[in-house]
Write a structure and sequence with these properties.
Elements lengths: L2 E6 L4 H11 L7 E8 L1 E8 L2 H10 L6 E7 L14 E2 L5 E9 L2 H10 L11 H10 L4 H11 L2 E9 L6 E6 L4 E4 L4 E4 L11 E4 L4 E6 L2 E6 L10 E2 L15 H7 L1 H9 L18 H5 L3 E6 L1 H16 L5 E5 H4 L10 E7 L5 H12 L3 E6 L5 H5 L2 E4 L12 H21 L4 H23 L1 H11 L4 E6 L2 H17 L2 E6 L16 E5 L6 H13 L3 E7 L11 E5 L7 H19 L18
Bound molecules: fructose -6-phosphate.
């Protein structure tokens, strides 16, 4: 999704903007550009990777100590130089970068065209520069305000003008925006990691706010003009955390961070007896005991995390629970009651569909708890209760450590709800707590067992289809393993409950077709083995994920990826790791861009 950068201060803005845009690459983009002002506004922009923009800047460097920058992920118009941001008005005096969508852009464009405006791009964003120029009568802030009043949609917009050259004016209507406060310099960005190496002090801009950024700092107002007091948030993330460390990709680094993420997410929240404290979860035991149903809503990998939550809430807490894709739930006219708890899960906290589903739940009278990784994200601000996942910034587009933290967060929540509802007794709570505390060491062990995963990756690298099967919690992991494989390796893959195979998909199992089978749920072990035998009988090749103590599987499987023995309830946390590594290694063997798979964006802030 698009990224935004801005800078006002004593230094040359160009290199700072480009550096910030590089740090936002993980959001996904297909063109990039900057505008710098030094009396006149200079714009440099290019389709493709930031290297193209850098080449342009190197051949014709713009000069100025104030500027704005953008990485674009195309929504209106193809990824071309002309459609790349920034966009100027015809006089070149006003320049704009923009994230999100102007919903009434066709009618605005028609109106401007009938007034004689000519456009050089196909974007909805260019009309904003035209409108601001038209509305300007000596006050940039007022021109921006009037433009916002005319433009419908969810977006963030950043504006600069040579008429008022020492300021940047920005507006947030849903799309994220933060201000980084430096010493005699101020930064603007769509995301904290972009400027974390310059400052740790941030102002989080909220929906329907306007901010005027100068080198002295930032002044925030509501769109309608009321002054806003905003506390400075100090971000503790280690700058190192946002870099690759010793790994060749962010994804591999993030996979290896998972033991630490589990420790962080559990820290100060769980004792040895299974008693849980969740700092931003405000409901009491009486509320927890009276919940009729839990709705879990999310997209993609976060949805797969929700599948685990659904199973735990149902099976262990005996609490009715449904996990629903947010994009389906929002249009499903669901019967959400006032005694229902809705859990919205989103790493970014900015996924448009998840936000909409969460809003729907709130409007239906449900209490809403968000599980998110981003402090101050939109989802966290919609929520009655927040369970932060503490995974740190996740740069790789394919989610791994944030997913794992979502699982841990749901175990904590289950212990909290189970204690209040009397469905988790002291013995079970103690056992689960013990198991959770042992998980980081278990995951370290799994990470050390990379050689068999590489062998498995080599065995499927040229496959045209790969199937993943499992039952119960293992089915949820099969779904996630399959998604990781397809998004990184571009191999076709499908996951299904092991029992479903014989109802149709078995027709596709022929000689050598790989089937990844998860076998961590002892209660249904024999049932899954039946499915394995069905596959073997058709010549399929079995790659199993099984416990160390499972001696039987060697008789059935072509390859076995082992995990240490543990509570079946917690096994998904360990069993997903070989599947993450499998996807990683297949993609590596196929020579793909692992951190930025094609066609995907880190944060999907459009519907
Ligand atoms: C896949 C992946 C996506 C996200 C999905 C939701 O690896 O990362 O499927 O899980 O786009 O994103 P969030 O969690 O930010 O709402």
């Amino acid at each position: 999704m698009c990224g935004i950068m801005g800078y006002v201060g004593p230094q040359e803005a160009g290199p700072i903007l480009v550096d910030g845009l590089r740090r936002l690459e993980y959001r996904g983009y297909d063109s990039a550009g900057i505008a710098v002002t030094n009396g006149a506004i200079s714009v440099r922009k290019a389709q493709g990777k930031i290297a193209n923009l850098e080449a342009l800047i190197a051949s014709d460097p713009p000069s100025g100590s104030i500027g704005i920058g953008h990485t674009r992920w195309a929504t209106h118009g193809a990824p071309t130089d002309a459609n790349a941001h920034p966009h100027t008005d015809p006089s070149g005096e006003f320049v704009v970068v923009h994230n999100g969508i102007i919903e009434n852009f066709q009618s605005l464009k028609a109106e401007l065209t009938s007034g004689g405006s000519e456009f050089v791009s196909e974007t909805d964003s260019e009309i904003l520069a035209h409108l601001i120029a038209r509305e300007y009568d000596g006050d940039l802030v007022e021109a921006v305000r009037r433009t916002v009043a005319l433009s419908e949609g969810a977006y963030a917009m950043v504006v600069m003008s040579r008429r008022e050259p020492r300021k940047i004016v920005a507006v947030r209507k849903i799309s994220p925006l933060v201000v980084g406060l430096g010493d005699g310099e101020t930064f603007l960005a769509s995301d904290i990691p972009a400027v974390l190496h310059h400052t740790r002090d941030f102002l989080i801009i909220e929906d329907d706010e306007l901010v005027v950024v100068t080198e002295e700092g930032a002044v925030i107002e509501s769109i309608s003009g009321e002054a806003v007091e905003r506390e400075v948030v100090h971000i503790d993330w280690d700058a190192e955390q946002a870099e690759k460390g010793g790994f060749d990709t962010f994804m591999l680094k993030e996979i290896h961070e998972q033991p630490a993420v589990i420790t962080e997410t559990l820290a100060s929240r769980l004792d040895q007896n299974g008693k849980v404290w969740l700092e931003d979860v405000g409901f009491d035991d009486a509320y927890a005991a009276a919940i009729d149903r839990v709705w879990i809503t999310a997209c993609g990998t976060a949805f797969h995390a929700g599948l685990i939550g659904q199973e735990i809430f149902r099976r262990v807490l005996r609490l009715p629970a449904n996990v629903e894709y947010a994009h389906e739930l929002r249009y499903a006219d669901p019967i959400i009651g006032a005694n229902d708890l809705t859990i919205a899960i989103s790493q970014s906290g900015e996924t448009a569909d998840t936000l909409a589903a969460a809003r729907l739940a709130v409007d239906s009278g449900s209490r809403m708890l968000s599980i998110t990784n981003v402090v101050g994200s939109t989802l966290s601000r919609y929520a009655d209760d927040i369970l932060y996942t503490r995974a740190g910034p996740e740069i790789s587009v394919a989610s791994t450590k944030a997913y794992m933290a979502m699982l841990i967060a749901q175990y904590l929540l289950a212990l909290r709800l189970g204690a209040a509802r009397g469905t988790v007794d002291a013995e079970l709570a103690g056992r689960v707590a013990h198991g959770l505390h042992l998980l980081p060491a278990a995951i370290e062990e799994v990470l050390e067992r990379e050689a068999p995963v590489i062998a498995a990756a080599e065995s499927i690298v040229d496959a045209s289809d790969v199937y993943f099967i499992g039952r119960g919690l293992d089915y949820a992991i099969a779904m996630e393993g399959s998604l990781k494989l397809k998004e990184l390796s571009y191999l076709h893959s499908e996951a299904m409950p092991a029992g479903e195979l014989k109802h149709g998909t078995l027709a596709l199992i022929t000689d050598g077709v790989p089937v990844v089978v998860l076998l961590t749920q002892r209660a249904v072990y024999d049932k899954v083995i039946s499915a394995v035998q069905e596959v073997k009988a058709r010549g399929g090749r079995i790659i199993a994920v099984a416990y160390d103590s499972d001696t039987e599987i060697a008789d059935h499987a072509d390859m076995v990826l082992r995990i240490p023995d543990m509570e079946d309830l917690l096994a998904p946390v360990a069993a997903v790791v070989p599947l993450q590594l499998l996807a990683y290694h297949v993609a590596r063997l196929r020579g793909h861009d692992i951190d930025q798979p094609r066609n995907l964006a880190k944060s999907v802030t459009v519907e």
